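Lab notes, practical 5.
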Amino acid sequence: MIGQTISHYRILEKLGEGGMGVVYKAQDTKLDRFVALKFLPHHLTANEAEKARFLQEAKAASALNHPNVCTVYGIDEFKGQQYIEMEYVDGETLRQKIPVKKIEDSLRIAVQIGEALGEAHAMGIVHRDIKAENIMVNSKGQIKVMDFGLAKLKGTLKLTRTSSTIGTLAYMAPEQIQGGEVDARSDIFSFGVVLFELLTGKLPFPAEHEAAIMYSIVNEEPVEITTLRHDLPPGLSHIISKSLEKDPQERYQSVADMVVDLRRSQKRSTRVVMDRPPAAAAVATPKQSPPEGLNKFIWIAAALIIAAALGSYFLFFNKSPRIESLAVLPFVNSAMDSGTDYLSDGITESMINSLTRIPGLRVIPRSTVFRFKGKDIDPQEVGTKLNVAAVLTGRLIQRGDELSIQLDLIDVRSQAQVWGSHYNCRSSDLLSVQDNILNDVTPYLDKSLSGETRKNVIKRSTENVEAYKLYLQGRYYWNKRSAASLERATDYFKEAIAADPTYALAYGGLADCYLLMEQYAGLPAKETVPKATAAAGKALELDNSLAEIHTSLAMCKSFEWNWDGAEQEFKRSIQLNPNYATAYHWYSLLLHDRGRHDEALKIILRAQELDPLSLVIGINVGIGYLQLGEHDKAAREFQNVLAMDSTFAPVYRMQGLLNLRKKTPEAALPWFSKAVDYSGRSSESLGDLAFCLGHLERREKAMALIHELEERYKNNVTPAYYIAKAYAGLSDRTKVFDYLEKDFQNHSGVISQLGYDQAWIPFRSDPQFVELLKKLGLRL
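Output from the prediction step:
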C-alpha cells in the first residue's frame, strides 16, 4: 500500500503489524500532518466478529481524551477494508527502552501509564492488553498508551473467540487466563508486570513455554523484585507485589490508588540519600578499653557530633527551594459532559483565588491559564512558557452524585512531581474536599506558612454547598461575556443569594453582571450601575477582606464619576491581594481616564507580569504606549496579541487606531473592517469604522453604519458614545454633542474615554467639549 493515496491520506511507510491490524504512517494532505492508519488484515475481512472487535477499538479509544492516550481521529473504509485514523507518535515503544536504568525515570513513565488507564477506567473502558509493545514514548518523553483493540466497554456485547484467550499471555491476569470476568483490576495486574519489566528488564513469571507461563501466573508467586534490583525506594516492592496478587480482591481496587502510591515512591526516589561512610580499617593492635569517665565523654561527644551532622543535613540538603510562582491549569472534565463544565472550571477558579492569598506567591490568573483549556498540553512546557516555578493540574469526574478529583503538583525547575493526591466525595461534600485539597497542597508551596495564613487560604465564603454550586454556574456564564449568558449568570447569582443571604461572593458576582450590562447588553448604565453598587456594597458589608469585591466597587464608583473614591478602592484591592491582575488592569483604565498616562503604563505592565498571556491586558499595554506616542512599542504589543489569537477583534481595532494616530487613515480602514467582521459587528467596531470612513470623506458608507447604530440605540442595545464618534468623523458638531449629552444623562461607562480618545482631538478647544469634561471631572 506504500505510495497509495487513500481518501486524503498518502501512505508513506509501514510502522508495524499485529494480530489485530497493520499500521501505516501516512500524510494527511488536507491538514498537512502525519497520522497513523490501522487496517484490519485482509484475511480477517470476512470475519464479522473481528470487524466488530475492530470497531470496538475505535469506539473505545475515541471516547478518551487524555495526553497519555493515543488520540483517535476517526474511522473509515477503503475497498472493503476498515481503518482507524489516529495520532502519529514520533518515538519508540516501551519495549525498546526496557530496562530503564534510573528509578525516577521508571516511576515517571509508570505514573503516566497509570493516569492513562485511570482515564480509561473512569469511562468504563478496560484495555485488556497492556504490555510494553502497546505503550509508546514520544520524542518529548511523553507516554502514549495505544491499541484498544481488546478493550471491553461496559454494556457492550462480550466478544470472544472459540478456544482462545484474548491478550498477550505473559501480561495476563490469572482470571483472564482462566476465562473469567475481566475488569479494571485485570489491567492493574498487567500494569504491575510492565512496571516489573521497566525496573528489571525481566518478567515476574518467567517460563520457557506458554503452558508453563500460564501455570506460573495462576499458581506461583512472582519473582521477588529485590533479588534483581537492590536500590528500590521504600514501598515500591510492596506496590508491585500488591498489583500482582492472584486474587483481584487482594489487588489495588483502582488504578488511581496505585498511582497515588507510585507518586509517594517517586518522591522518596528523588530525596537526597547520604552514603554511609565505610568502616575504618581494622588496626592490628591490642584492644584497649578507655577509662570509665572517658567512655561517658566519648558517648556524649559522639551524640553531639551526630546531632550537628543531622542538623547540617536538614539545613543544607533537605531544604527545597520555595515555590514563588504557580499556574493552576484548567481542571479537565473527564466525564466529557459539558453540563458539568461549570464544576471543573469553577473549582479551578476557586483554587486560583484561594492560592493568591499566599503572601509572595504569584499565581497566574484565570484569563491566561484558560487559554489552555481543552488542549493536549505538556504541563512542563506550559510552566516554562508562563515562567512559573510549578504547575498544578487537576482532573475531575462526576458520576451521579459522586465526584472524583485527581491533582498533581509539578516542579517545573526540577521536572519532578512534588505532590499528588486523589479525592473521592459526594457533591454535598464539595466544600470540605476543597478545604482538604488546599490544606494538603499549601505546605508544598510554602512550608513556612503560619497557621493564620493557612486559615485565610482555606477560608470559605459560604457553608452552603448548593449556594456554592449555583455561584460556580453564575461565574461560568459570566465568563462567556454575552447578553444571554449575563442574563443566565444574574439568575444563578440571585439563586445563590436566596440559598445563602450571607454569601458575599455571590453579591460580588451579581455586581459584576450589572457592570457589564451596558457593554454586552446595551442597557443604560444609569439603570444597572445603582444595582451593581448596591450588590457590591452588600458584599463588603458581609466581608470587606475580598480584593475582588473592592475592585468591583471601584468600577461602580468609576461609572458614578467618583474618581477619587474609585482610586481608593483599587488601591485597597491591590493592598489586600498584590497578585490580583484584574485590579491593576482596571486601575490603569481609570488612570488613562484621568490623563495620568505614565502611571497607567506602569500599572498595566504590572498586570502583564501577573497575567502574561491575557489578550485584553496585552491590548491595554499597547494602548499605554500609544497614549505616550511610542508607536513602535504599541505596534509590537498589538502584533504579540495578534500572534496569540488572530481572531481577537479588539486587536484589529487597535491596529486601526494606531494607523489613525500615525495619520494613515487608508491603512487603518482594512483593520477596522476586520474588527467589524471578527467582533460580529459590535457597536464599538462599527463606530470606529464609520469614524474612519467619514475621515476619508466616504459619507454614504459612513451614514449606512450610523443608521445601523442609531437603530440599536432606539432598541437600548448600544451606548450613544459610538454614534457620537461616528458623527465626529463627519465633523457634524451638532450630532456629536447631541449624542454625547444623551450618554452623559445615561451615566454611560464609556463616556469617560473623552479625555484621551483621539477621535475628539478636533473638538478639544470647543467650549461645549471643555464644559462636558468639567462636568465629568476629567482633564486632558
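Observations recorded by the TA: Residues 92-269 form a domain with the Transferase(Phosphotransferase); domain 1 fold (CATH 1.10.510.10). The CA atoms of residues 289 and 295 lie 8 Å apart.
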